[in-house]
């Protein structure tokens, strides 16, 4: 067919330009160019996926704006090529069917990309799940107003696309296509005084042991004013016990010089805690039982323990918060308090006079405190005798804290008063007058390796497509501002296999504003499939003589659930379908009764076996009901099964479009006049 010419010189310029664009969009030359380019991109994508994995090829190509633009331009070309030949002739039937099939195929692909689901459902043996988690994530901001009468809060979900690599790696990769992929970086949320910025992100990382903080100190010998030899102390933060949210509790470190001077070190988790370290110093007589100093909303409050009564509440100024004295432990010189907000749940606070590195602060409410006691009091003398010189309140103590800015602060406590508070730069010598002995000691920081999180140093790892699956999730360096108060910290994303447990201390942070607090977590996007799956048994077969799995599958039941009145968790109720085997190559189909969506489920991967008492702690951390516990379900080992849940709403359109293309091509061959229709001029006319 001869090239169609719609524009002419006698037409207005805008009309000519519009028609010329229409002709270009309908041209066979554009069609051939686009098809060749698309074929090249698809071939290239195959290699990218083999080198970097499925997530990388979706980030750089399939989900990139330029690939969507390429498909959109191809669709416009196909549509214009058909419309420009209107009115159509009988011999163009095959041509129209083929082009309509291409359009239907493209619509099906777009529909699947927009509304489709490709997610993973992690289930521990003996566990129940109805949520499938996608590869995408979002920040969840929970805003708790102080004056909320019913304790309600607002939730803001902020989408977060991080890409498949550590962000520093993009600087070393080609601009095309890697840096054309979409990443949410910089300011990604700015609503009503709440700003969220993402400064960096690690997709693959490790947490090697942090080197101890090394301090060298020299103290004059008795009867002399000259400094003795410098003595080194190494302060290594340790993990001890269980924290308030069920995760490992990170405590500080302490060492004692031969002269009796004690050094204590811990890591602050917020700017407010660093400020509280400076300001929560005692004032005036301490009394027999000491003094509590609390910091809240930029204000300092002091209470004499002698005057506190168990169960009584005292206001913290005009903040709306109240502090309740619960009980004391004279043997450890410790106190238990509760911080009550104007509305909502209270939080426990534990303060120790001699081991402040073990203090449990009310971080959710932004209340921090210190406990001070006179070494000459009866309680302090009794504690010193019981501790056998391990904690002697009469000896000088130097507290060192790492702030959120990765700097150090120090304070010198010489009972019954604070001697000095200040910054502690690395390598800078500090002189402290030891008033009781009328001597002057000197100390300095020799080596300091900052903690990104208390007890943890996060180190990025190079990309490795063949690395074994890990329970580690991305780490994001974020800056959260609430009413002008800014905190910068690393936040670990929750893993899909851990979503049945509350976030740990490294997976959630709270920033305090004027009359509200904001909690931030990074969680995977989830889909409720509308039915509950109970994993009865994970089956695995190994290749002979190896630890490689040759076959694995999940034996599941589809059940209904009910709420356990004691644990407040969902537990198995009735069985809908029992003994369903899900394998890698034999997917099953299950329909959501609520939405009518049809999901295909098949076995994807697994983790384990987890053993009782294992170093990972996974087996011992799981409790009865949804997950396992050795007392409730005594198994020798425990597996975590990953099932793929797929929903492809455009599958029918894609199949139908493909059949239309085949039918159109067959029609064109059948109607040979489409290709070889003779005209009076004797020339052969061809068309697209």
What does this structure look like?
The protein is of the alpha+beta class and 688 residues long. The chain folds into 3 domains: 13-117 and 648-676, no CATH class; 118-205 and 462-647, no CATH class; 213-447, no CATH class. Helices cover 20% and strands 38% of the residues. The strands form 9 sheets. Strands 2, 3, 28, 29, 30 and 31 form a 6-stranded antiparallel sheet that branches. α2 (28-52) packs antiparallel against α3, α4 runs antiparallel to α5 and α5 (93-115) runs antiparallel to α9 (651-670). The longest helix has 25 residues, at 28-52. The chain starts with 12 loop residues before the first helix and ends in a 12-residue tail after the last helix.
Key terms:
688 residues, alpha+beta, 6-stranded antiparallel beta sheet, 5-stranded mixed beta sheet, 34 strands, 20% helix, disordered C terminus
What's the SSE blueprint?
Elements: H1 13-26, H2 28-52, H3 54-62, H4 65-83, H5 93-115, E1 117-124, E2 128-145, E3 154-160, E4 186-191, E5 194-202, E6 205-206, E7 213-218, E8 231-235, E9 238-242, E10 248-251, E11 253-256, E12 262-267, H6 271-279, E13 291-296, E14 299-304, E15 313-315, E16 322-329, E17 334-340, E18 347-352, E19 367-372, H7 378-387, E20 397-402, E21 408-414, E22 417-423, E23 430-434, E24 439-447, E25 459-460, E26 475-482, E27 485-492, E28 508-512, E29 516-542, E30 549-563, E31 570-583, E32 588-591, E33 598-610, H8 618-621, E34 638-647, H9 651-670, H10 673-676
Parallel strand pairs: 12-20
Antiparallel strand pairs: 1-34, 2-3, 2-29, 4-5, 5-26, 6-25, 7-8, 7-24, 9-10, 11-12, 13-14, 13-19, 15-16, 16-17, 17-18, 20-21, 21-22, 23-24, 26-27, 28-29, 29-30, 30-31, 32-33, 33-34
């Amino acid at each position: 067919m001869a090239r169609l010419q719609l524009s002419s010189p006698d037409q207005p310029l805008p009309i000519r330009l519009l028609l010329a664009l229409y002709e270009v969009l309908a041209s066979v030359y554009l069609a051939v160019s686009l098809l060749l380019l698309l074929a090249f991109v698809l071939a290239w994508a195959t290699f990218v996926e083999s080198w970097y994995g499925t997530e990388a090829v979706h980030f750089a190509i399939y989900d990139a704006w330029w690939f969507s633009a390429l498909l959109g331009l191809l669709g416009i070309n196909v549509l214009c090529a058909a419309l420009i030949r209107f009115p159509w002739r009988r011999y163009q039937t095959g041509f129209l069917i083929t082009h309509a099939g291409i359009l239907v195929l493209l619509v099906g692909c777009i529909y699947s990309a927009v509304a489709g689901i490709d997610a993973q459902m992690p289930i521990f043996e003996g566990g129940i799940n109805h949520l499938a988690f996608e590869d995408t994530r979002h920040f969840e901001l929970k805003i708790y107003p102080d004056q909320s009468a019913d304790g309600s809060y607002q939730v803001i979900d902020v989408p977060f696309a991080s890409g498949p690599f550590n962000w520093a790696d993009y600087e070393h990769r080609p601009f095309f296509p890697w840096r054309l992929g979409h990443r949410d970086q910089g300011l990604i949320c700015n609503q009503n005084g709440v700003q969220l910025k993402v400064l960096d992100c690690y997709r693959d990382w490790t947490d090697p042991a942090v080197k101890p903080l090394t301090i060298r100190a020299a103290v004059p010998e008795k009867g002399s004013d000259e400094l003795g030899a410098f003595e080194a102390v190494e302060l290594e933060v340790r993990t001890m016990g269980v924290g308030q949210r069920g995760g490992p509790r990170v405590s500080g470190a302490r060492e004692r010089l031969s002269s009796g001077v004690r050094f204590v070190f811990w890591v602050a988790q917020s700017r407010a805690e660093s400020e509280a370290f400076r300001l929560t110093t005692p004032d005036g007589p301490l009394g027999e039982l000491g003094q509590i100093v609390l910091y809240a909303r930029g204000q300092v409050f002091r209470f004499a323990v002698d005057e506190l009564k168990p169960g009584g509440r005292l206001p913290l100024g005009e903040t709306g918060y109240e502090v309740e004295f619960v009980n004391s432990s004279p043997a450890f010189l410790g106190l238990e308090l509760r911080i009550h907000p104007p509305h909502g749940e209270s939080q426990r606070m534990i303060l120790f006079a001699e081991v402040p590195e073990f203090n449990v602060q009310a971080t959710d409410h932004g209340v921090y405190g210190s406990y001070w006691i006179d070494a000459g009091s009866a309680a302090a003398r009794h504690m010193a005798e019981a501790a056998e010189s391990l904690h002697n309140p009469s000896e000088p103590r130097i507290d060192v804290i790492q702030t959120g800015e990765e700097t150090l602060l120090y304070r010198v406590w010489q009972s019954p008063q604070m001697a000095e508070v200040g910054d502690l730069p690395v390598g800078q010598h500090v002189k402290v007058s030891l008033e009781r002995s009328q001597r002057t000691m000197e100390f300095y920081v020799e080596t300091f390796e900052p903690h990104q999180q208390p007890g943890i140093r996060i180190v990025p790892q190079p990309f490795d497509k063949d690395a074994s699956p890990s329970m580690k999730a991305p780490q994001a360096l974020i800056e959260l501002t609430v009413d002008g108060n800014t905190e910068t910290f690393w936040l670990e994303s929750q893993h899909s296999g851990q979503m049945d447990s509350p976030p740990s201390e490294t997976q959630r942070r709270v920033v305090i504003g004027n009359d509200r607090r904001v909690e931030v977590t990074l969680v995977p996007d989830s889909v409720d499939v509308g039915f509950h799956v109970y994993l009865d048994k994970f089956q695995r077969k190994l290749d002979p003589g190896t630890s490689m799995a040759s076959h694995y599958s999940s034996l599941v039941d589809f059940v209904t659930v009910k709420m356990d009145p004691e644990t407040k968790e969902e537990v198995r109720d009735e069985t809908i379908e029992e003994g369903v085997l899900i394998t890698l190559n034999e997917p099953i189909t299950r329909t959501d009764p609520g939405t009518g969506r049809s999901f295909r489920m098949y076995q994807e991967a697994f983790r384990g076996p987890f053993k009782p008492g294992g170093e990972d702690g996974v087996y011992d951390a799981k409790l009865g009901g949804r997950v396992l516990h050795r007392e409730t379900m005594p198994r020798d080992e425990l597996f975590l099964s990953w099932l793929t849940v797929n929903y492809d709403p455009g599958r029918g359109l894609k199949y139908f479009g493909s059949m239309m293309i085949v039918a159109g091509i067959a029609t064109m061959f059948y109607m040979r006049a489409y290709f070889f229709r003779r005209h009076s001029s004797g020339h052969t006319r061809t068309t697209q």
